[in-house]
Amino acid sequence: MGLTPPVDFEQLMNETKEWIKKKDDVELQLKELEQVLTTAGVGMNDPLVDNSGFPRADLDVATIRTTRNQVHRLRNDVHGITAEIEKRLTELHQAKRDQVQQVPSTPSDDDNAIPFAIVNAVAPDSPAYSAGLRRQQKIVEFGPIKRANNERLQALNLYVSQHENQPIQVRVIEEGGNRLSLTVTPKSGWGGRGTLGCHLLPL
């Protein structure tokens, strides 16, 4: 399976701004056209013929019909533009939450790697969760900490405490055997306990 190309955050932001500007421009045109109808004393559904079925003499019927058609078209445009903006805002939100793209490690990197800990719990919206750590993943490397030097996780805990607000490379194995490289940044004040927001058990 191929990897998903990384999101160009700046380009996506610029595209979103362009769509928002386009929406503002269309809504301005729409407001001007609706004002034409208001000035004429009619709305979108008022009859343009009299009781005898003839065009009303007090109205410029041709102009009103043209204006109504333009209003219908621009309202549809606004709906389409709004959908594009919502789509890009969703992508921006996801890109912002993902501190690092999850990239499967190559088999040669991990052939001899042995996990030394397992993720027992992860708090929602925690630094660990935002980085991609999930329950039942097995930790192969946590920065420089590996099976040979983790000292029953004491070395890992010390390393985390010394690297708050600094990105740490983490390599994990998922339940299905897929290997991932993640980046987690320990932070205090995220709304929960600790700086990671996850609980590890030694293996």
Automatic annotation (TrEMBL):
InterPro entries (UniProt xref): GRASP_PDZ, Nas2_N, PDZ_sf, PSMD9
Coiled coil: none
Protein name, as recorded: Probable 26S proteasome regulatory subunit p27
PDZ GRASP-type domain ranges (all copies): 121-200
GO process terms (BP): proteasome regulatory particle assembly
Domain called Nas2 N-terminal: residue spans: 17-94
Pfam families in the record: GRASP55_65, Nas2_N
